[in-house]
């Protein structure tokens, strides 16, 4: 069960964000029971999109790029999320898999930048929490970079970005601006790959239709 103190911190952070940086708006707070009432979000858990075989891989990268943009805005406000895991990302796409919106949820371990969560657990106990935070260190933007890198490791693309982001030393991790640039290149490359594959498929389909028409003409002539 969440504590009153932790719920108060989470409520204060959500009020500060007020719907910015992809965060849900806080609608209510339990004075007697530690609970929060948040706005309803359109879309589905990112995990469901990753499990959808029809979703293009470039869409996965676009989602992560949008998460990076939200984190940059969040850090500018002075807040660190600390747990950018796949289940904590809500994605809204239309029927044609066009990305409409990306939101971040679960601010249960978020805190002001520079604060410590006072954890004392083995790094890896919480896969998306940076080892420096797990050991009780300060929550900094570099912690969210690590968290994002752990998320990227679950994808089949942008593995170099994932490797760089999950380095043990926080100072060695790239900043979010550099990660966004890497992801922009990855999105463009993946989209071109999908476009070429689609073109080849369409060409093959036209060839098959032409061959079928030719056989049909030959059959008529034989009769």
From TrEMBL:
Residues 193-206 have a biased composition (Basic residues). Residues 189-223 are annotated as: Disordered. Residues 214-223 have a biased composition (Basic and acidic residues). Residues 1-223 form the Protein kinase domain. Pfam families: Pkinase (PF00069). GO terms for molecular function: ATP binding; protein kinase activity. It comes from the Eukaryota. This is Protein kinase domain-containing protein. It comes from Penaeus vannamei.
